[in-house]
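Field log, afternoon session.

UNIT: design team B
ACTIVITY: writing a sequence onto a fixed backbone
BACKBONE:
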C-alpha cells in the first residue's frame, strides 16, 4: 500500500527508524488523520534518474483550539502503518485556522 494519509501530533517526538506510530496522534478538532491529495509529479530525466511526487493535506481546526508540532505519513486511515514522520515549529491553531502539510517523496 502506498503512503497517502497524513496525521498530526502536538507531542514533542524524537524521530526514530523503528517508530510505527505517531505518538499523541491528534484524533479530534478537525485535525484527525486524513487522506492527502497528490500534487506535482516530477518524472525522471533519464532511465536511471530519480523522480518525485508531492502529497498535501490542509487541515482546518474545528471544535476547540489545538496545537501541533509534528506530522506522520501513513499507509492506512487507521492503525500502526507509519511510513515517515517529521517535526516542525509548534503551531497554535485557533478554530477555523488551517495548516497545510506537504511531503515530497523522492525515489
Amino acid at each position: 500500500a502506498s503512503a497517502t494519509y497524513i496525521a498530526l501530533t502536538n507531542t514533542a517526538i524524537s524521530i526514530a527508524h523503528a517508530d510505527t506510530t505517531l505518538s499523541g496522534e491528534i484524533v479530534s478538532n478537525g485535525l484527525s488523520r486524513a487522506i492527502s491529495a497528490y500534487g506535482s509529479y516530477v518524472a525522471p530525466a533519464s532511465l536511471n534518474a530519480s523522480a518525485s511526487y508531492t502529497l498535501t493535506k490542509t487541515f482546518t481546526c474545528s471544535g476547540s483550539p489545538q496545537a501541533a508540532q509534528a506530522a506522520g505519513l501513513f499507509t492506512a486511515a487507521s492503525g500502526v502503518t507509519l511510513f515517515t514522520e517529521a517535526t516542525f515549529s509548534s503551531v497554535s491553531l485557533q478554530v477555523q485556522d488551517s495548516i497545510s502539510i506537504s511531503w515530497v517523496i523522492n525515489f
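LOG NOTE: The mean pLDDT is 94.
NEXT ACTIVITY: expression trials, pending approval
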